[in-house]
Structure formats: structure tokens, C-alpha cells
Design brief:
Helix Hairpins, BirA Bifunctional Protein, domain 2, 18 strands, elongated, RNA-binding
RNA sequence: GGAGAGUUGGCUGAGUGGUCGAAAGCGCCUCCCUGCUAAGGAGGUAUACGGGUAACUGUAUCGAGGGUUCGAAUCCCUCACUCUCCGCCA
């Protein structure tokens, strides 16, 4: 949620800043709602004040055994008006809330305009692209079993067998250990979250269609960002507890509504996938450097695995709803002959902390700290990248040295 | 699933219909005293949202939501959560 006071003070500025994100802020609508809110709020609070005062008088009269009938009538009158006006106020307030919850985060000053992925800027690359046009992971290993998954749950799921399942599991431990080495505390968290948490991190109310709903108010998490960030919800953090750095491995569940026909083959886009997420909560002045730090933590995983990748900075049009600045890490996939997203590292500034009521005691001033997160990394896509990049074209996948001890193997035989 | 107890400010914890935004303690801040990493004394110290240039001031908040009442932290109902016991269970 953006700061309503900023919006009140400089609506044109906010509107212009959001244009870069292709969001059309309705300033006039906001002004109308907010001024009606103000009128009604002043009126309602005044009526309540009158009611409180008269009730006190009423008590006095009662105590002295005096006649209360006149006061009683006045009170009835006020209560009637109050009820009406309060209803109107509540309607306005919930409208205002909906309006505010719909507004995306303001992009960072570094963010450049652009309408889509095409306009993202490559920041750096790592490693050499060794192979092109090779066969894809499904053709390399028959231990990725899509058909069985279809039988169990339908499309966009997978069953992994034997060494591929173990490699998948090894990657998770490997990534968690790197995160721990980099100062993130490990957490085991719920894989289901309530709507309040999802509103806090920004998935709701706008993107309900992307989620799997399991009951009235509960959803499968689309990312560990939700539980990890909400660990801090409704709390007042002390300055010396920052930066707070946490990590978790979780499955992630995404309905992938609207992506029909996209990435239908293989593990690239699944309803369920594993991810190791890293989250930081930092002092507002430290989030720029924290994002670079977090990004480097994610890159480290790919470097150790010797997988070629590039880092891109997202342009305004490609930036997520809650993010002010995002770097994507894209790993090279030989079968697709291109780089594909394997991590997304974002600075959410105070957007999430305002929604989740995360506060920081900054020398007596209560401020909203900044939250950041990134994948380090998406496990399924890392698995694909490993298989495709490290397949020796014979029947072996060559396991990178740092990963070997997690697997107790130097190579995996395939087919 | 059954029975009971609870949920109060940054923390601990009192408060069973108005004088309660709420005792007391802890913590924190300011000052005083003390020449020494201590002790003591005085005062201050919730949050959110409004109105006002400001001093200041209004409203709301005692788990959440409803109800009773002129008036609710306090009474009633529903729900959530915590704890204890029983049952069940990985």
C-alpha cells in the first residue's frame, strides 16, 4: 500500500510515477472519495462526541434522581442520525481501502520505462554458453515422469524418479546451506496462508485467480515470501534486530491461470514447484544496498553450480505489483536457446510493511521498514538447467563439485 | 471431537456497568542527587485515524464481530486463538 499522505499531498506526482508501471491512477476519483470521507468522518465523530457528552449528563441526572426524558429523546435523535451517517462513512471507507489496495507500489528512481520483457536491461552475464539447441530435459532423462503426474493430478505436475528426485532434494539442501552461510536463518513455515497474510504481501485482493484456494479464507502459498514476510506482520521491530534475514524451502502453488499454451512442455511451468526463498527486512535507508546483497546471494548459487546466467533489471512495465525494483536472474537453457527466469529479487520498500503492519522503532520514530525477497533459487528450474547444461551428450549428467557431497555422486546416468 | 480456563498498553499484570485510555511494576525518556559502569528521588512515556498554521483538540481501540444499555474492558451471543484435562491421532 502506498502512503495515503503522499497521495494526498502530491497526487499528480504519484500518478506520473505510476505511469511508468502502466497504471492509470484516477486522481479525481481519489479526491472525491477522500473529501467525502473527510466530511462524513468529521460529522460522525462530532455526533459521537455529542452522544458521549449527553450520556455522561444522563448518568449525572440519574444519580441525582432527576428527570431524564428530555435527554433521552435527544439521544434517540442523535443515535438515529449517527446510524445513517456511520453507514455511509463505512461504505466510503471500504471503497477507499479497495482503491488503495489496488494501487501498485511506486517504482524506484532507477527503473526505466518499458512495456514488457523486451525492454528489460541486461546488467551482467556469468559463464559461457557452451551448448545450443540441445535436447530438452524430458528427452535427456526418463526419470521425469509427466504421464504419471497427469494421471494423479492433471497437467502441469511432475513425478521425479530415483536419481533425478535425489538431485532435486540435494539442490534444496545445497541452497539452504548457502543461504545459511550468507546469514539467513532457516524457517519451516505453513504452506497455507490466510487472506490477511496474502493481502499483506500483495497477492490479494488483486490476484486471487493466480492462487489455489483451499477453504473459505485459506490459500496454498504461491511463494515462501508470503509466510516469511508475514512472520514480521503486526510487529514493532527494534532497530538492532535489523537486518532480519530469513530463508525457507517450500513448495509453491500457482494456478497459472492465463498461461494456457505457454511453457506446456516439461518442468518449466508447474502448478507445484519447490523454491528456496530468501527474505530481508531492513531499515528504510538500507534497502538499495540490501537488494544488491540479496541478488548476489541468489547469484552465488548459480555460480557454484557453474550455470551460465544473466541478470536483468525489469523495466517499469514488467515490474510486479508490489515491487519498486526487481532484478531477474535468468539461467541459460540450451534446449530453448535462451535465458529463462530462475530467480526474481525485489525491493518492496515500505509497500508490504505498510500492508502487513510491520513497523520499526527508529530511535523513537515509528517507521515502516523495507522488505525484500528473492528466490535462491527456484529448484525445478535449477534442475532443468543442470540437466540440460551439464548433460555430456552421452548418458551422463556431470554434477558440479559443490553439489556432489549432497548427492554422494559425481555423475548421474540417464535414459 | 468433549469439558474447563483465558486473550487488557513495548512487556508483566490489576480492573465485573459511568469518575477507565485504563492501577501497579518492568522497560524507555528527561531532570535532580551521587565522582564513578550501582543505588535513590521527581516528572514524563500507548496506538491509529481525523480537525486546526499552531497551542490544542475530536473519535476509535482492553482478541474479532454482533447484541443489551442513555452509557460496556466489565453483561449476553457468535467466531478465532492460547492453556489444562479427556478422546483421537502422525
Amino acid at each position: 500500500m502506498i502512503d495515503i499522505n503522499f497521495l494526498r499531498a502530491e497526487p499528480e506526482k504519484v500518478r506520473d510515477l505510476l505511469k511508468i508501471k502502466n497504471y492509470d491512477l484516477k486522481i479525481d476519483l481519489f479526491r472525491d472519495i477522500d473529501s467525502e470521507r473527510k466530511t462524513l468522518q468529521v460529522l460522525v465523530e462530532d455526533l459521537k462526541g455529542q452522544k458521549n457528552n449527553l450520556s455522561k449528563e444522563f448518568g449525572e441526572l440519574k444519580k441525582n434522581n432527576q428527570d431524564t426524558s428530555e435527554l433521552s429523546n435527544q439521544l434517540k435523535e442523535i443515535k438515529k442520525r449517527l446510524e445513517e451517517k456511520e453507514d455511509s462513512l463505512n461504505t466510503i471507507l471500504s471503497g477507499l481501502r479497495d482503491f488503495l489496495l489496488d494501487i501498485p507500489n511506486i517504482p524506484h528512481k532507477d527503473v526505466e520505462p518499458g512495456s514488457s520483457e523486451e525492454d528489460n536491461k541486461v546488467i551482467r552475464t556469468f559463464g559461457d554458453i557452451q551448448k545450443k539447441d540441445s535436447i530438452d530435459h524430458l528427452d535427456i532423462s526418463s526419470d521425469i515422469d509427466i504421464e504419471s503426474a497427469v494421471k494423479i493430478a492433471g497437467s502441469r505436475f511432475a513425478v521425479l524418479n530415483n536419481d533425478i528426485a535425489k538431485l532435486h532434494r540435494a539442490l534444496i539442501s545445497f541452497m539452504l546451506d548457502i543461504a545459511e552461510k550468507n546469514g539467513y536463518e532457516e524457517r519451516y513455515v505453513p504452506y497455507i496462508a490466510n487472506s490477511k497474510s496474502l493481502v499483506g504481501t500483495g497477492q490479494l485482493p488483486k490476484f486471487e485467480d493466480d492462487l489455489f484456494k483451499v477453504s473459505d479464507d485459506l490459500y496454498l502459498i504461491p511463494t515462501a515470501e508470503v509466510p516469511l514476510t508475514n512472520l514480521f506482520a503486526d510487529s514493532l521491530l527494534e532497530k538492532d534486530s535489523l537486518p532480519a534475514k530469513v530463508t525457507s524451502h517450500t513448495p509453491c502453488f500457482r494456478s497459472e491461470a492465463g498461461s494456457y499454451g505457454k511453457d506446456t512442455r516439461g518442468l518449466i511451468r508447474q502448478h507445484q514447484f519447490e523454491k528456496v526463498e530468501i527474505v530481508q527486512v531492513v531499515h528504510p535507508e538500507k534497502s538499495d544496498e540490501a537488494l544488491e546483497d540479496l541478488l548476489s546471494n541468489a547469484e552465488e548459487v548459480l555460480q557454484l553450480l557453474e550455470l551460465p546466467y544473466q541478470v536483468v533489471q525489469l523495466c517499469g512495465g514488467d515490474l510486479g505489483f508490489s515491487s519498486s525494483k526487481t532484478y531477474d536472474i535468468e539461467v541459460w537453457l540450451p534446449s530453448q536457446n535462451k535465458y529463462r527466469e530462475i530467480s526474481s529479487c525485489s525491493n518492496f520498500t515500505d509497500f508490504q510493511s505498510r500492508r502487513s503492519k510491520i513497523r520499526l522503532n527508529d530511535d523513537g520514530h515509528k517507521v515502516h521498514p523495507h522488505t525484500l525477497n528473492g528466490s535462491a533459487l527456484a529448484v525445478g528450474r535449477t534442475l532443468i538447467a543442470l540437466i540440460e547444461n551439464l548433460y555430456d551428450e552421452k548418458e551422463l549428467i556431470l554434477i558440479p563439485k559443490p553439489l556432489q557431497k549432497y548427492l554422494n555422486k559425481e555423475v548421474i546416468k540417464v535414459k
